[in-house]
Write a structure and sequence with these properties.
169 residues, three-stranded parallel sheet, alpha/beta
Length: 169
């Protein structure tokens, strides 16, 4: 008689955390202010304010927005604040920088507010593969939050994990 196959992974107390489950819905948008500059290099306040005033901001409703300038212009810090005044009530988040920075900031907030009570003194797997653009820093932030409370932390899939941490308790 063949031996019964037991799924030890399914029967284990491992808790898997998939950051993709926390990925917030909403379009990600980059607004490049370069076209709003004189000769795409010089910020003229009057012209810049006119661009901000005449821009269709409603298209960013419920979006995550990264403000940037792709030219080598020296941009005063207030210049990014002006579009932010228009986006603040429409968009879900505004940052100055790249889409990667935007995702990092979004996940920093998610992980900061993550209720970790279910992971206290438990073995945890941080799922590694993702179809969404989860920034590497999100995994670092999550690990940092879990180390003080978990029994063990692994990275990867339940069938093939890399051990990261074991509590000294």
């Amino acid at each position: 008689m063949p031996e019964e196959i037991i799924n030890r992974v399914a029967n284990s107390k491992l808790i898997t955390i998939d950051l993709e489950d926390f990925y917030p819905k909403g379009k990600r948008v980059v607004i490049d202010i370069k076209p709003w500059l004189f000769q795409e290099i010089i910020l003229k306040e009057k012209d810049f304010r006119a661009h901000v005033k005449n821009h269709d901001w409603n298209q960013y409703q419920d979006c995550y927005v990264a403000l940037t300038c792709s030219s080598e212009a020296i941009i005063p810090s207030w210049a990014y604040l002006l579009p932010t005044t228009q986006l603040a009530t429409l968009s879900k988040k505004v940052v100055v920088g790249s889409l990667e920075l935007l995702e990092t900031v979004v996940f920093q907030e998610i992980i900061e507010h993550l209720n970790v009570a279910a992971y206290i003194d438990k073995p945890v797997i941080i799922k590694g593969c993702s179809n969404k653009p989860i920034p590497a820093s999100a995994y670092t932030l999550l690990t940092e939050k879990l180390v003080p409370i978990t029994k063990t932390i692994f990275y990867g899939e339940a069938c093939s994990t890399v051990p990261l941490y074991k509590s000294k308790k």
